[in-house]
Amino acid sequence: MTEDLKINGLQVVDQRTTNLAKNLFRDEQQYIFFNPKLLSLIEKQNLGRQLYLYDSPAIQAHQAVVLVDCPPSLKVLRQALQKWQPTQITTYFFHQTDYYASGMPSRTEFATVFAAVKRQPLTKAALLQLGKQLKIDQEKVNFMVKVFFELNFVKMEQGKLLINDEVQTHQLSEAPIYQKRLDLIQTQEKLLYSNGDQLATMLTQLLNVENEGVS
After folding, report:
1. What residues does 31 pair with on adjacent strands?
2. Residue 168 in contact with residue 148, Cβ under 8 Å?
3. 30, 52 Cβ separation under 8 angstroms
4. Taking a C-beta distance cutoff of 8 angstroms, is the pair 84, 61 a contact?
5. Selected residue with higher pLDDT from 116 and 165
6. Which residues make beta-bridge pairs with 7?
7. For residue 212, what pLDDT is reported?
8. pTM for the full model?
9. Which residues, at least 6 apart from 164, have a Cβ–Cβ distance to it below 8 Å?
10. pLDDT mean over 166-194
11. In terms of C-beta distances under 8 Å and separation of at least 24 residues, what long-range contacts does 49-58 make, across chains too?
12. How does pLDDT run across 112-133, given as a tens digit for each residue?
C-alpha cells in the first residue's frame, strides 16, 4: 500500500515495509540509509542507484529523498531533514527488529539472566541457548548481556562468561546500549505505528520546527 500525502507543500509517500525488495529501488532517487551495514548489503547488489549514508555530503538538498531504513532516533532524523530540506519524502522505514513490539527487558528479566550467569560461567554456545532455557526471547538475552558488559558487571575469561566480582553499582540505564534501545523503541513507535496522516504531520514538523526536545 502506498499513501501519498501533502502537508504544507511537503509531499510524503508512505511505503513503509518489512520487505526490502529490489523493485523498491527501480526509480532514479536519492536512497538514504541510516544503518551502514544495510547500505553495504544493498550496494553489493549493484542496482545502479544513488545510495547514501544519511550524513553523506553528496546528498543534494531541496530534492526528493527515500528514507530506506528506520533512523536510530527522531533527533537524528530531524537534523537530517532540516539539512536536506527535501521537497518529497518517501518512507520505507525498513527494520529487521521491531524494538517497540519487543520492548525493554523488565528488571525481573535482567535479574534472571544475571542470576543464570552467577550460578555458573557460560560458554558462548550455552549463552546462545540461554533464552530457550529461561523462556526469554534470545534477542533480549543478547541485549542484556551487552548491557552487563558495558556496565562491567560481567567479563570473559578462557572463553566463558562470568560475573565480575569487582563490579561497582550502576543503574542499568547508565549503559549506552540501554539508552540506544530506548531511543529505538520511542522512534519506532512514532514512525512505524502512526497512520499516514500522523506520519506526514510528524515529518513536516521535524522538517520545519527547531525543537531540541525531540529525541
Report:
1. 51, 66
2. no
3. yes
4. yes
5. 116
6. 10
7. 43
8. 0.85
9. 152, 153, 154, 155
10. 94
11. 49/25, 54/80, 55/80
12. 999 999 999 999 999 999 999 9
- 18-67 pLDDT tens trace: 999 999 999 999 999 999 999 999 999 999 999 999 999 999 999 999 99
Angle between helices 107-119 and 138-150 (to 10 degrees): 80
Query: Which band of pLDDT confidence, cut at 50, 70 and 90, is reported for residue 6?
Result: low
CB contact at 8 A, 160 and 123 = yes
SS (H, E, C) the chain: CCEEEEECCEEEEECCCCCCCHHHHCCCCEEEECCHHHHHHHHCCCCCCEEEECCCCCCCCCCEEEEEECCCCHHHHHHHHHHHCCCEEEEEEECCCCHHHHCCCCHHHHHHHHHHHHHCCEEHHHHHCHHHHHCCCHHHHHHHHHHHHHCCCEEEECCEEEECCCCCCCCHHHCHHHHHHHHHHHHHHHHHCCCHHHHHHHHHHHHHCCCCCCC
Task: Name the residue among 44, 95, 43, 40 with its Cα closest to residue 67.
Answer: 95
The sign of the torsion formed by the CA atoms of 36, 42, 44, 50 equals negative
Give dist(CA 21, CA 52) in Å, integer: 18
Q: How far apart are CA 188 and CA 95, in angstroms?
A: 9
Q: What angle do CA 94, 197, 61 make, to 5 degrees?
A: 60
